[in-house]
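Quick note —
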Amino acid sequence: MKATIVSATDQEAFDQAIATAESVIKDHKPIVIPTDTVYGIAADAFSVEGVTALLAAKGRSRQMPPPVLIYDKAVLAGLADEVSADARALADAFWPGALTLIFYSQPSLNWDLGETQGTVALRVPHDPVAIELLKKLGPLAVSSANKTGRVAATTADEAMEQLGADVELILDGGPRPAERSDDFESVHAQPSTIVDCTSDRLIVVREGAIPVERLREVVPSVVTRAEFDEQEKARREAEVALAQTQQAMTTLENDSDQQEIDGVGPKAAAPVAGSLAAHLVSHSGLKAVDQKRTATAYAAPIRTVEDKTKPFTVAEARALVFGASSSTSAGITLESKAGQAELDELEELPEA
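Predicted structure written out below.
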């Protein structure tokens, strides 16, 4: 097979070129067309045979599905699902133009572009030949006109050199991009900028003809892939640090709970020498007071207090010994209406 180059640079030739291209596309074969960035190899997006031939011509597998060109942003709703307000704002600002947006595709679409993982990359090109074809034929699967690993063609002759044996038709719309300088080289051609719009944050997955700064003039939250990866790394590190902190706090709480179970608690202040508390301790028959235990941890046998000259309730005596708010110094007497029966029930402090 040897491709035919058909001019599309004047109105008469243009009409004939469009008619020829329409015939080849409907026959499920790929063609080469000009776009606003570089020349592209195109096929009917809904033709499995056509898309397969496109990938074969480029030397690509199904793991590298082609984007889809549409003639107007109004077509977006019919092909894409879950289009966010930010994504629509970018489409409004830069279509037609060199911006490709990745969306989830409508699940009802009967097409097979390759291993897309349920997504589709869409663009409205700023090129009269491409737009006219898209109006007549509908969405076209289009990838840059080159063999994989080689520089994309920016003229019809360059496309012929690489793909002339793989396609039947090459539409010649003149050099691309149209505003190129005389000393322009194809290696310097910029592809479209690609933005992933399948998550809450819009991510630039390929920087191209439209700078990130311009995108941020419309949607300030747009991030590059490198920025996104850095943010994700920081988020994961923060989650790990939080989990470690929570684990440490849980361990500390468990240790504290275990200490309570084991009868180990905060130390109480020692009774002041000569105070009533010291007097109670000295007459309790104990050799010492265990300052590490809490009052609630004791379960000692009840004994009768020998010193019955000061009528204290059990609660008052415990409060004094274990450092509660009411402390006394030598010579101070607490008033109590407790009778001899309450005093007889006073618990002896447990042994250390």
